[in-house]
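We read letters as residues; the fold follows as tokens. Both lines appear below.
***
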Amino acid sequence: MNPEATEGHPVFCTIVPPHVLDTLSRLEDTDRSERALRTLEHDALQRTRRRITTVRGLGAPTGTPSDKPNRTIYDAKRQEVLPGKKVHSEADKPSKDASVNRAHAGLGATFELYLKVYGRHSIDDAGLPLDATVHYGENYDNAFWDGRRMVFGDGDNDLFLDFTIPVDVIGHELTHGVTQHTANLDYFGQSGALNESMSDVFGALIKQYALGQNASQADWLIGAGLLGPNVTGEALRSMKAPGTAYDDDVLGKDPQPATMEHYVKTSRDNGGVHINSGIPNHAFYLLATDLGGNAWERAGQIWYDTLTGGELDKDAQFDDFARLTVATARTKYGDGEELQALLKAWSQVGVPTG
């Protein structure tokens, strides 16, 4: 294992990928293009701040493990100042602000899955308080984990709605914190796509767990309910059928590949981290649906144990991760149906395991 992998260097991830915003920024419709450009510029600034924080270091976790979440919600009041005004604490009654309540519930759903299913105490496994800021910026079309908190824009009610709506978006972003405190996967190329895929996988599992859905009942969409009324599409990404989540005159077409045959080589988006994540995403979907039942159980356990087991290098490639999942499955379940389904899933997406 890389000795730096436990240091917990944060990445700056936004749920709406840069390639989508870049497409929007080139539109002739100046209102839409200017909103996208402002969001891109803001995200670039936040990304730079994250790198500075990474260099300085964040220090060791200081929380106290508890079986209860410790959530605090702040309101940025459409300014770009963090954390904003504190408006809701763990023991408070529901707010009159729906965004506050959705953020509180999404943080709780994430805490619940990690604790009840995997025995993990918050994001860092040391009781990290879960903070979130809502109503960030003016028509800000994104949400992000900044290494310390969740931050939600309100969207523009045109292309994107309020970013607190999909619980899997919240789970996705917070899982970047889990990765940050475990394998600490580099945010570039295939290791970056694995980083993104981990967040999609556990974001999907958090939604399924909260809704009580098994693998066959789940929609396997990331960001369903987020796209605005003027978009032709159903979500940001599809794990069941990568490349089909949206096909819109404004947003463009979902570029995700489902197999290595269509792997996208690009220097943009940190080497295509939001694009090529469709490949390990699809492998997980194939495994989970082949095994049946609750995806967070056997399939999710293999992924979680591989992420947190200490053997996954920060610069791991798809085949490195695949081989480790095979070793994990064999150790935990022997040579039975779990292993056979896993080998089949990786084969179907074209990632070698031996």
Notes: The chain has ten helices and ten strands. The beta strands are 13-14, 71-75, 85-88, 130-134, 143-145, 150-152, 221-222, 237-238, 247-248, 252-253.
